[in-house]
Amino acid sequence: MNHISIALDGPSGAGKSTLARLLAERLGFLYVDTGAIYRAVGLYTHQRGQDPQDEAAVAALLPEIDLALCHEDGIQRMFLGGADVSKAIRMPEMSYYASRVSVHPAVRTFLLEMQKALAAKENVVMDGRDIGTVVLPDASLKVYITATPEKRAERRYKELVEKGVADSFDQVLADIVARDTLDKNRAVSPLRPADDAVILDTTELDLNQSLEALIKLARERLGLGGDSA
Ligand code: DC
Questions:
Q1: 108 Cβ closer than 6 Å to some ligand 1 atom
Q2: Cα(113) to centroid of ligand 1, in Å?
Q3: What is the pLDDT of residues 22-35, one digit of tens each?
Q4: How far apart are CA 67 and CA 78, in angstroms?
Q5: Which of 6, 31, 91, 98 has its Cβ near the most Cβ atoms within 10 Å?
Q6: CA-CA distances (angstroms) from residue 86 to 35, 153, 190, 213?
Q7: Ligand 1 atom at minimal distance to the Cα of residue 99
Q8: Distance of CA 67 from the midpoint of ligand 1 (Å)
Q9: What is the value of pTM for the model shown?
């Protein structure tokens, strides 16, 4: 049986993961946050004391890395070597590690099958950077979610303050701009909208308006989410 897949791509801080989770909830689909897997590879690189920019060093770690992505009652948990690292991978320095390890072709190839396998099992809303272009090129619906860097930094800063792990706003903005540059300019699977993606700019939209826009797309394109829960 063919499953329905919705690919949500876009730069960091555009609201993708929250929107993906809420959309999946509304549709009864599995939400898969692929950034978590890159973050776990980043964390492992850090734990092993390796330079995330050293491709050969990172590639050498891959055969021994023990990654598992589990879903329980719609909540995703990331395991590394059997330990739940769902929280640890959210620390700001793991954004740095994840963005550096994710440029390496060896890492991307290594993680590709894992992501494809998840979408083959169930209806999914999958968020990332290259879901519509590389991981699920035949996704039923592709949306590229974006917003200005300043707006994205503002949202990320607020999130970090709430978690009590805030940098300064200027640092958050600088990190976002640096990650955009890396994500968009890497040689393999750069961040870009798929040719058949719908662009959703959330700069002027709040969370609810963005979610409604996504549900409207799912309804129009896939005949899903007709109820207004
Ligand atoms: O979405 P996120 O911030 O958790 O992602 C962390 C890093 O992982 C980000 O810098 C880019 C990378 N990533 C990627 O290259 N491809 C994906 N499908 C998901 C994330």
A1: no
A2: 16
A3: 999 999 999 999 99
A4: 8
A5: 6
A6: 11, 22, 25, 29
A7: 10
A8: 16
A9: 0.90
